[in-house]
């Protein structure tokens, strides 16, 4: 079994020139925060830089514990609109990850926090360096990976979060940076 039906790839959602321009703009414009956080009095360092942007009133505990919610920038809004039109689905938030080089990574997890509801649907855009996207089945431990290249849009169907964990492993030879945008729909608190 592979997550064939649970992952969909649109290879050149942005072409090479557009992807490069967006990557450079984000790198400059994002006003990246420090990656040292304090949670419950304990300090830790996130192995990448992150910003979190959401519509007014949207609260997401994972990111919210770590990160201040920021408004949408014009560039992030444009990207959101293009993805929404393509998918005919609306997102109210985006988590932006900067992997400064191959030492930065994200560990095994599923994006299945309660705030994403029972059917978390996520669109993930890669800009910059190619990285491996690894997945591992929660029950069978079956595993695999795909390469995410600049301009590629990865659609994660809800069942992907139900059945698999994913990660971006360290790639020690890699000196270039990568930015990933995961568009999410957080269920607004009642
Ligand atoms: O960088 C990626 O492609 C994945 C990031 C990710 O899994 C996340 O932010 O939840
Ligand atoms: Mn994830």
From TrEMBL:
The keyword Oxidoreductase applies. The keyword Ubl conjugation does not apply. Residues 90-187 form the Fe2OG dioxygenase domain. One of its GO terms (molecular function) is dioxygenase activity. Keywords: Dioxygenase, Oxidoreductase. Coiled coil: none annotated. InterPro entries: AlkB-like, AlkB-like_sf, ALKBH3, Oxoglu/Fe-dep_dioxygenase_dom. SUPFAM superfamilies: Clavaminate synthase-like. This is Alpha-ketoglutarate-dependent dioxygenase AlkB.
């Amino acid at each position: 079994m592979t997550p064939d039906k649970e992952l969909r790839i649109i290879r050149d959602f942005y072409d090479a020139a557009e992807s490069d321009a967006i990557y450079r703009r984000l790198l400059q414009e994002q006003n990246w925060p420090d990656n040292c956080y304090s949670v419950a009095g304990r300090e830790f360092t996130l192995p990448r830089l992150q910003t979190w942007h959401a519509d007014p009133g949207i609260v997401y505990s994972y990111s919210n514990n770590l990160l201040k919610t920021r408004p949408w920038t014009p560039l992030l809004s444009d990207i959101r609109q293009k993805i929404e039109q393509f998918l005919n689905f609306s997102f109210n938030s985006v988590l932006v990850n900067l992997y400064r080089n191959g030492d930065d990574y994200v560990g095994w997890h599923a994006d299945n926090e309660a705030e994403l509801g029972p059917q978390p649907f996520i669109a993930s855009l890669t800009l910059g360096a190619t990285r491996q996207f690894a997945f591992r089945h929660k029950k069978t431990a079956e595993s695999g990976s795909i390469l995410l290249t600049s301009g590629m849009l990865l659609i994660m169907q809800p069942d992907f979060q139900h059945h698999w964990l994913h990660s971006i492993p360290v790639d020690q030879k890699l000196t270039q940076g990568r930015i990933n945008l995961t568009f999410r729909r957080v269920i607004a608190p009642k």
